[in-house]
Amino acid sequence: MEKEEAIDKLKNFSEWFRTVITVADLVDTRYPVKGCYVWRPYGFKLRRYVLDIIRRLLDDTGHEEVLFPLLIPEDILGLEKEHIKGFEGEVYWVTHGGLKKLEKKLALRPTSETAMYSMFKKWIHSHADLPIKVYQIVNIFRYETKATRPLIRVREVTTFKEAHTVHATAEEAEEQVKEAVEIYSKFFDELGIPYIICRRPNFDKFAGAEYSVAFDTLMPDGRTMQIGTVHNLGQNFAKAFEITYEDINGKHQFAYQTCYGISERVIAALVAIHGDNRGAIFPPSVAPIQVVIVPIIYKGEEEKVLQQCRSVLSTLKREGIRTFLDERDISPGRKFYDWEFKGVPVRIEIGPKDVANNQVTIVRRDTFVRNTYPIDDLTAAVKRVFADIEENLRKRALEEFRKRIFRVKNLQEAREIIQNRRGIALIPWCESDECGMKICEEVDGDVLGVVLSKDLVDLTGSEVCPICNRETEKLAAVAKTY
Ligand code: 5CA
Ligand code: ZN
Questions:
Q1: What is the three-class DSSP state of 445?
Q2: 20 to 30 Å CA-CA from 282: which of 19, 94, 448, 464?
Q3: How far is ligand 2, taken at its centre, from the CA of residue 437, in Å?
Q4: Among 265, 267, 270, 271, which is best to mutate for testing ligand 1, by the most ligand atoms less than 8 A from CB?
Q5: What is the model's pLDDT at position 7?
Q6: Residue whose CB lies within 8 A of the most ligand 1 atoms, among 39, 160, 237, 271, for a mutation test
Q7: pLDDT tens by residue, 297-336
Q8: Residue 263 Cα, ligand 1 centroid: separation in angstroms?
Q9: In this structure, is the dihedral angle defined by the CA atoms of residues 152, 154, 157 and 162, taken in order, positive or negative?
Q10: Residue 396 phi, psi (nearest 5)
């Protein structure tokens, strides 16, 4: 890790973000292909713990993990017309096998609907084969044309968790959308990432979907970032891929489908939202290292202190706490700086006085509050501190988020919020595409869609759409977006 200049998250978020993810050893962005980057060991662990959470949530709700091929034949990728229209500008093609030109071009999956659904057709015969609920965690490739940014807009999405479901009825698919929204809500809640849930405008829905529901969080620079989406695909793909089942009366019916996805943007949000000017701050649940022990050594007392440090290390490790003892021959201050930057939530300092008193000093990364704890029953104390940190990070992030959501009456106010207040404006909207696009233009931002979140604002009461003056009870969330 190299010594860094002071960085300011609010003044220059972009620079802050790039510095944190690289200097904290999460990723290396110097790979010589644009939009591709390397996960380093420390970052890869973080990624794994984040994925553990979503895996658990999906497994607990009857989803099963699968793995489909990366390559998709051209004709299959093109079967659903809206889908291919949406993706054709972003597809990477494999045209050769060695020196030989392939008869049929192969796409690197930009998402796996077409790969999966061509097989679902073969798996599904009767209503007894339904529902299907599967997911995979894979890389996908999208030739993004907007400016790429590590973790946020990449061309090789390395951490694409996509779930796909098939159902007998429209009602079941609708229920599945609700379950998916619940799963993602729990996932982001666990990570302390605040979000607003919106139904995307028609002009911004997923290519091939009936409608899309999206989770957006708010980055420190005032732009929102889409961190997850849930799509109701209706029968669009079932018709294109001939996914039918025989119902109880022996009649063949087209199935109904949903899909939902997240990516490493979740990790970008985690870094961006919890971090401060001293670097990353990771919730203990996903921190690659949860506790770092730093010996405070004075001449003549080295052995006593180190022995105590090693004993605490083995106690915590035995209890499954991810602990690291920093025995490097550099000053404690330098060690504090390094581990703070890397977001380790708890630091344990042990000096001669701590040894004498049978205690340790614990410093929290989120508040820098320092306290001593008796060495007996240290594990329980550390776990309590973990819970407090997690609670505080969640609360802090949510308060900040709520402060930056404004219910406005007209377009000028919306514009002011978006341009000068780093916020999300909520404005009445009739839900028509036409008015939606007009609002985008007028406020110089994006309509995220109709707000579905019930806990963020009071959604009751009717007002008028600022463009067409029709009465409406719906609010649109409007913001600048990533
Ligand atoms: N098949 C559907 C659901 S799995 C799908 O592909 N939906 S998506 O296009 O909306 O992507 C799902 C999520 O992946 C998005 O909400 C966004 O958070 C993330 N994502 C999409 N493109 C990128 C990208 N280029 N870089 C990083 N994350 C991305
Ligand atoms: Zn309108």
A1: coil
A2: 448
A3: 10
A4: 265
A5: 87
A6: 160
A7: 988 888 999 999 999 999 999 999 999 999 999 999 999 9
A8: 6
A9: positive
A10: -60, -45
Which residue from 422, 96, 149 is spatially nearest to 271, judged by alpha carbons? 149
Nearest to 350 by CA among 389, 294, 406, 400: 294
User: What is the spatial distance between Cα 50 and Cα 35, in angstroms, rounded to a whole number?
Assistant: 22
- Report the Cα 432 to chain-centroid distance in Å: 29
What residues does 268 pair with on adjacent strands?
Answer: none
| pTM score, whole prediction | 0.97
Ligand approaching nearest to the C-alpha of 466 = 2
Task: Give the Cβ contact number of residue 320 at 10 Å.
Answer: 9
Give the integer Cα–Cα distance in Å for 344 and 364.
9
Pocket of ligand 1 (CB under 6 A): 111, 113, 142, 144, 153-154, 157, 162, 206, 226-229, 231, 259-263, 265
What is the rounded CA–CA span in Å between residue 291 and residue 347? 6
Residue 6 banded pLDDT, cuts 50, 70, 90: low
Buried b (16+ CB within 10 A) or exposed e, 218-250: bbbbbbbbbbbbbbbbbbbbbebbebbbeeeee
**Phi, psi (degrees; rounded to nearest 5) at 442:** -65, -35
The ligand 1 atom nearest the CA atom of 163: 4
Are the beta carbons of 73 and 104 closer than 8 angstroms?
A: yes
**Ligand 2 midpoint to CA 436 (Å):** 7
Please state whether beta strands 27-28 and 446-451 pair in parallel, antiparallel, or not at all (unpaired): unpaired
Written as one letter, the residue type at 2 is E
Strands 463-464 and 471-472: antiparallel
pLDDT of residue 4: 52
| CA 434 / ligand 2 centre spacing (Å) | 7
Q: Identify the sign of the CA torsion 11, 17, 18, 20.
A: positive
Assign residue 175 a region (left: φ > 0; alpha: ψ between -120 and 50; beta: otherwise): alpha
Contact predicate 6/337, CB 8 Å: no
Mutate to test the pocket of ligand 1, among 111, 146, 158, 184 (most ligand atoms within 8 A of CB): 111
What the block records as the tokens of 222 is 């005032």
